[in-house]
Amino acid sequence: MSLEKFMNQAVSSWMSSEGPDSDIVLSSRIRLARNIKQVNFPTIFSNEEAKSVIETIKERITKSTFGKFGDLELLLMDELQPLQKRVLMEKHLISPHLAENASYGACLLTENEEVSIMINEEDHIRIQCLFPGFQLLESLRVAFEIDDWLEEEIDYAFDEKVGYLTSCPTNVGTGLRASVMMHLPGLVLTQQMNRIIPAINQLGLVVRGIYGEGSEALGNIFQVSNQITLGKSEEDIAEDLISVVSQLISQERSAREALAKTSNIQLEDRVYRSFGTLSNCRVIETKEAARCLSDVRLGIDMNYIQGISKNILNELMVLTQPGFLQQYAGGPLRPFERDIRRASLIRERLKMEDQELGG
User: Fold this and answer.
1) Phi, psi of 309 (to 5 degrees)
2) Is residue 181 a known part of a binding site?
3) 157 and 12, same structural domain?
4) How many domains does the chain have?
5) What is the DSSP letter of 72?
6) 208 annotated as belonging to a binding site for a ligand
7) Among 152, 61, 157, 159, which residue's Cα sits nearest to residue 110?
8) Which of 173, 193, 227 is the endpoint of a domain?
9) Is 297 assigned a ligand-binding role in the annotation?
10) Digit-coded pLDDT (tens) for 234-268
11) Is 126 marked as a binding-site residue?
12) What is the per-residue pLDDT across 287-329, written as a single tens digit (0 to 9) for each?
């Protein structure tokens, strides 16, 4: 399969599209946790109860159509190969927990993959809306629409005093997790992130790596999300996150301006060295690829490099993950073989940019 055809099939909307402030904000995500009334939570339910949740979803939901998103496709985790589940996880469409641990788990996906509804993860239902750029309120609006649509068919576990009931106490109340994925190389290179992260934590927010809790901030990509779900409305939670992200955007732009003034030639040299590595390498590990991709994306945003799509970072940070590399190769690969395949895929992707420019 050609890389172009593979990408057309593999790249989600958030990876290939640009949104507001997309030079810094890669994506905005809203997730709502919901459970079915009078059914044990997934943390303690039986296999029979798990199957009943799936049957309820199949009977009441998949025959429906949700507005502009069209039909939802039901994917049963026990019918997917481990590699297929890993690819879904690498695309941020399902969680690591659903991919690796969930019994009788499933996922409902829209064709453009902006909406993903996980079933029998930590909760019976987790609605996820994922949009390119800084579109948190738009993500929240769509999540509310889907939530209302589901609630017409399903009785949620809800308490008048505390709100939506969830498996984890930290999600009780709104059941809302709002997160924004940001590319912050300026703040990292100016050594400000170590100071900023504790300050953000004190505001009831948390900063994590590209794949959420427990993951590393590869390629200077960070996820900023809320920790508090109880005692505030969904709108207030979103607005708090929007306020902090807006400050981070401003600080990142100031850091990039400072680098351009004080270290312009060094920064330009760093960008082009990374570009040269990606264009010519024959073997490259995940961390080095992420660092070089971050440098090249920064070079594109600061106009050192022209004629290359900004979305190349979004695409290649996902397409060069182990699951995708093995899917593209058509079978399992050992770690060193993945490093070779990663280098080849990156070179091919950059060559595609030259061809589109007529070079």
Assistant:
1) -60, 140
2) yes
3) yes
4) 2
5) P
6) yes
7) 61
8) 173
9) no
10) 999 999 999 999 999 999 999 999 999 999 999 99
11) yes
12) 999 999 999 999 999 999 988 888 888 889 888 999 999 988 8
d(CA 176, CA 341): 38
Q: Which residues contact 126 (CB under 8 A, 6 or more apart)?
A: 31, 32, 33, 34, 95, 117, 118, 119
The 10 Å CB-count burial string (b at 16+, else e) for 2-15 is: ebeebbeebbbbbb
The response to whether 27 counts as a known ligand-binding position is yes
What DSSP character marks residue 209?
A: B
> According to the annotation, is 256 in a ligand binding site?
no
Say how far apart CA 176 and CA 164 lie, in whole Å.
Answer: 10
Q: What is the pLDDT of residue 16?
A: 79
- In angstroms, the CA 138 to CA 132 distance is 10
Nearest to 2 by CA among 319, 345, 290, 357: 345
Q: Domain limits at 41?
A: 1-17+29-173
* Cα-Cα-Cα-Cα dihedral sign, residues 308, 311, 315, 316: positive
Has 209 been labeled as part of a binding site? yes
